[in-house]
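To: structure desk
From: M.T.
Subject: fold request, one chain
Message: Could you run this one when you get a chance? Sequence is below, nothing fancy, just the single chain.
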Amino acid sequence: MGKMKVFVADSIAKEGVEEFGRFKDIELVVKTGLAPNDLAAALGDSVGLVVRSATKATREIIQAGTTLKVIGRAGAGVDNIDVPAATEKGILVLNTPGGNAEGAGELAIAMMFALARQIPQANASMKAGTWDKKTYAGGVELFGKTLGLIGIGFVGSVVAARAVGLGMKVVAYDPYVSKDKAKSLGITMGSLDDVFKAADFISIHAPKNDETKGLINANAFQKMKKGVYLVNCARGGIVVEKDLIAALDGGQVKAAGVDVYDKEPCEDWSLAKHPKVVATPHIGASTNESQVNVSIMIAKQMGAYLTKGEVVNAVNKVK
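Reply: Done. Structure tokens follow.
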């Protein structure tokens, strides 16, 4: 009997490749950057498919993978995988929650500093040879401010801990988190409206799903403090982009830090190019450490499932 083939469609860290190599019954096929039609044709008799965020495991791709048993996402979000289509075919979908939490959480904190002190704009001004101290002298301090967190899972918990260490007051909304966890983090739980009402800074750390899609819209912005700072390093689509632009233009939102977008790469650049936005190209989990962590995790999880039937971090149930 030949080895089981696992197809790697997006680049993973060499440590992940080495981890797959520990499973003697698994053969790794690494072909990254393929167009959808080429990927569908290349899957062949692969039993596993590894993706990050670039490759979309659509229904068509999943149907083409006639021998697939497992799809592994080297990362937390699985919105680039058609999970219902996988479930219909009995394909297990695994992810790696927590593997990139430090990297994503630190970017959110960095965004808050960048917004509070207009660091990117001041840097660009200096690079242009302009000494414009007056324009950039009106920054605010994070110390003593209230941070509102929407979601305190792996990443939200990292942000909460860092914020408490910076002397911020933290109020969080997460219907799936216990008060005991909040107490252990030194933060206060509240309703979504409580967060909107109290927060000087708001940072989003929720998954994109039916409950959260379009959650931060024109109505939500009107409930927030005037001049609030907003950070979204979670998922595009949670914030309604046109409503955020309107809130920035009207001054309801002072400034925004955005790492994620409705379409990636951006098709509509209106938000990313807005003068009150600090924009990055979905790099929250793109630290060296995070990529090593998630690559090793997904290799261990997929290897354990294919060779021993062990299931860790599944996002669906299959027969």
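Reply (cont.): Residues 288-308 form the longest helix (21 residues). Let me know if you need anything else for the meeting.
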